[in-house]
Amino acid sequence: MAIKRILIPIIGFGKGGGNRVLSELASRWNQSGCQADFLVHEALSQPYFPTTGGVLRIASDGSVNRDGNGSAACAGSGSPRAFEIYRRLFAALRRIGAGYDVILANHSLTTYPLFFASCGTAKKVYYIQAYEPEYFATGRGVKAVLLEWLSRQSYRLPLLQIANAPVYSNYREIKTRSWVPPGIDRSTFFRRTDIPRFRAGKVCTIGTIGRTEPSKGTALVERAFEALAASDPDVRLKMAFGSSDSNWRHERAEIVKPNGDAELADFYRSVDVLIAVPTQQFGGYHYPVLEAMSCGTPVVSSGHMPATAESAWLIEPNSVAAIIDAIRLIRHAGEQQIAEKIALAEKTAAEYEWSAVARRFLDLMEAGA
Questions:
Q1: Beta carbons of 1 and 125 less than 8 angstroms apart
Q2: CA-based nearest residue to 274, from 304, 248, 308, 298
Q3: Per-block mean pLDDT, blocks of 10 residues, the chain (369 long)
Q4: d(CA 296, CA 272)
Q5: Which residues pair with 333 in a beta bridge?
Q6: Is 361 within 8 Å of 22 (Cβ atoms)?
Q7: Identical fold at 5-183+353-367 and 204-351?
Q8: Cys-Cys with 189: which of 180, 294, 315, 365 at CB 3.0–4.6 Å?
Q9: pLDDT tens-digit readout, 242-275
């Protein structure tokens, strides 16, 4: 069956890598002649990542208004309660779901309104971008336990599962062999013109994507930098978006807040090495790894795709000492070794162009994975 219309129910337009994936997929599907629409609560914000996908906003009675039709719903800005978001998603899916060929859930908790809503002959698909129970497990209290349980159960629902990495094939409760990787826009995340050079007396700028979630490893990078900075006046730390804790400070650490992909790509090209060391789900994709590789910046990775020992510096997970050793190793590496890894990293990144990724996704959905 040729897919002509895809509906993507979401809990909001965030700034995370998973949201970029959805925005890009919708745009590429539209370019190929397949209409892709997002379905979202009317009070939520506009997309952070540019997309040509349509935006349908849900009113309190479950009716929808398309952005651009002059409706007051287009203004969306607010923080509705979670229950209200899911209630409206369910109501809207019952109203309009049957008008689509595919409905694509992309978060464990959006699977429930999709599963329970009657949507005619629409194919119900679950795009798994991470094993979410592990993230919920880091919380505390009854709410965290409930969210973890609900997330685990979402993989048991009878939806067509497509993961974003082979590591999630038949992983715990996930039962699928089909996977589609994240993509990248090489016209934005293009290779830098220089190759980072390291020598005594030259400033070395360490980069990382700052996140508050412990699983992202930001605190490890901060501790490694503190140890390096104590004995080396030439090291600097540049963090995109923030630190692990609002109270963390260092006189040689800078926090920048890229606005959109173009500024994020500039960030990768502005640092001498990018540290990306999440502490779980090893073997899964980590967007900063792919993006920095595409930009020609040396990458230190704790074992996330698409980094390999040939294209990056792989280290032991959860280790401050390993981060310090890797930075020192890179700073003393020969220029040829650095150039070779950068060249292979760029070649790898070129295999993830969005047009190919979007086409592969459509093919899997049409074939029923």
A1: no
A2: 298
A3: 93 88 96 96 92 96 82 59 94 97 96 97 95 84 91 96 91 92 94 91 95 94 97 96 93 95 96 96 92 97 96 97 97 93 95 94 88
A4: 10
A5: none
A6: no
A7: yes
A8: 294
A9: 999 989 999 999 999 999 899 999 999 999 999 9
Show me where the domains of the chain are located.
5-183+353-367, 204-351
* Identity at 198, one-letter amino acid code: F
pLDDT of residue 357: 95
Q: Quote the pLDDT of residue 17.
A: 82
DSSP structure class, residue 274: E
DSSP, collapsed to helix, strand or coil, labels residue 87 as helix
Which residues are registered as beta bridge partners of 55?
Answer: 38
Exposure string (b/e) for 299-323, b if CB count within 10 Å is 16 or more? bbbbbbbbbeeebbbbbebebbebb
Rg (CA), the chain: 21
Cα separation, 157 vs 176, in Å, equals 12
pLDDT at 218: 97
Q: What is the CATH number of domain 204-351?
A: 3.40.50.2000
Give every CB contact of residue 351 below 8 A, 6+ residues apart in sequence: none
Q: Which two tokens stand for residue 26?
A: 């919708």
Fold (CATH) for 5-183+353-367: Rossmann fold (3.40.50)
Beta bridge partner(s), residue 301: 276, 314
Model pLDDT, residue 70 = 41
Q: Output DSSP code: residue 355.
A: H
The CA distances from residue 28 to 3, 12, 17, 51, 366, in Å, are: 14, 20, 17, 9, 16
First and final C-alpha spacing in the chain:
12
Q: Hey, what are 363's tokens?
A: 């093919």
**Using CA atoms, how far apart are residues 258 and 21, in angstroms rounded to an integer?**
18
Say if residue 177 is exposed, middle or buried (CB neighbours under 10 Å; 0-12, 13-18, 19+): exposed
